[in-house]
Amino acid sequence: MKISTKYKTDIPDVLPQIAQAEYAGAYSVSLFFSDGVIKKVNFGNFLKKTAHPKIRFYLNECEFRKFKIEGGNIVWGENWDLIFPIEQLYRGEID
Question: How sure is the predictor about 73, in pLDDT bands with cuts at 50, 70 and 90?
Answer without folding.
Answer: very high
